[in-house]
Design brief:
Layout: H1 2-35, E1 62-68, H2 75-83, E2 92-98, H3 104-116, E3 121-126, H4 133-144, E4 149-152, H5 163-167, E5 176-185, H6 192-214, E6 226-229, H7 230-235, H8 246-256, E7 260-271, H9 277-304, H10 310-320, H11 325-345, H12 350-353, H13 357-377, H14 384-401, H15 403-415, H16 448-469, H17 476-503
Parallel strand pairs: 1-2, 1-4, 2-3, 5-7
Antiparallel strand pairs: 4-6, 5-6
Helix pairs in contact: 1-6, 1-11, 1-13, 2-3, 6-13, 6-14, 8-9, 9-10, 9-15, 11-15, 11-16, 13-14, 14-17, 16-17
Amino acid sequence: MELALVILYSFFLLFIFGYSLVQLHLVFLFRSFKRKKKAFTSHTEVFIPTDSSPYTPAECAVTVQLPIYNEKYVIERLIDAVAQFDYPKELLEIQVLDDSTDETTLLLAQKKLEWQAKGINIQHIRRKSREGFKAGALAYGLELAQGQFIAIFDADFLPEKDFLKRTLPEFADEKVGVVQTRWLHLNENYSLLTQLQAFTLNAHFHIEQTGRNFGNHFINFNGTGGVWRKSCIIDAGGWEADTLTEDLDLSYRAQLKGWKFRYLPEVGTPSELPVAIQAMKTQQFRWTKGAAECTRKNLWKVWKAKNLPFSTKIHALFHLMNSFIFPSVVFIAVMSLPILWIKVHYPVYKLLFQVGSLFLISLFFLMFYYWTSYREDTPQSPFRFLYFLGRFFLFLAVSMGFSLHNAIAVMEGYLGKKTPFVRTPKFNIYDRKDTWKHNQYLLKSLNLITLVEGFLALYFLGGIALGIYLDDYGLLPFHFLLSLGFGYIFIYSIRQSMSSNISS
């Protein structure tokens, strides 16, 4: 029994180590990109109709799709932003794909009339049912779309006026099927929660997307803030709603078909980060479960592909399975107390316990990964690295606190349990004086998982006590971070629940 536990423990440690090695390789690819940036710049040829353009107007027509479901707090600002794109009106079509069941629909109708009076081609499209959720709405709109290029924005995004002029030039290469831009954050400094979200998202967009794209590995359309070639969507099989991350799914199907993706780190698209912990949990659940579903659907197709190099398959493995990090953390964390007892009382397993050093090595690799990203966004100062260390370990603790919630989502995805697409509530929050407490889309936040998270905070406090009792302090920092992370998630959820119940 003890041996089986130690072997399982080692397996999850090895997965984390492998994941950290891939992240380290992405850092080196990113740094190579920075050194050879001229080899990966945008095309100088502007893919926009001019008197001297070799393209016909039909080849430059763009349809902007805005999939909407109950977004009364943010929809007006989104439509205003898109309607003001610096692009010929006769070549721009805006589809508001509205599945709303509340007053959002009335706000949309009023905005549509306002911009139509100014000559903007904006269509308010409603379906008979919300079948297929976001994927279904995008597929429905695609059948009606007049443009050869499809730009997509979620309700919480505010693209800049020159978005199309900065992204469409990449399509001069006829093999390019997608152009993705980097997410920026409208409310990064609203709270510690938003700061930590920005911390991890910045690393994804700085290091992962840039590194994979530069290394000719698979990347993903991030669901928003990007442009598709319409023929690419059709060739890849179209939008499918059998996973919660239709963007990741279509991205892999398109790249398996041979389409190229372009990631433009120099083009940023501002968006709003979730400010309430339940909104963030909703988003995390969808992302992690959807990634697991895409693993079931696409990973074997990648490994069977004969035209892909082995390095690309390895990157695809850890890209699709990155959410497996959460079940790994949960198992290692919960079993760390029994493992600590076995380590002290069964010295025969001493050699196997040395595998635990892989976790420490992995931690340093991940620290280097996030430090490389952090330097991109912060000015140089004598205390920059110290500030980063504080932010990194807070991020690590809170990520561990989310691990149970996300691990459940991942296991549901691997087991094929289907759940509906639940959108992330938006709040129209910019700074600390704004509040989400009367938002009608966020009412319930307490459930059994929240109570278990509170129990785990106490459980890992017990791990600290056990380490002191056994005079073995190797896991004490780990148990401290776990207790801090689960305690933070539990207390934050309780506080939000009390505020939501009062406001409702």
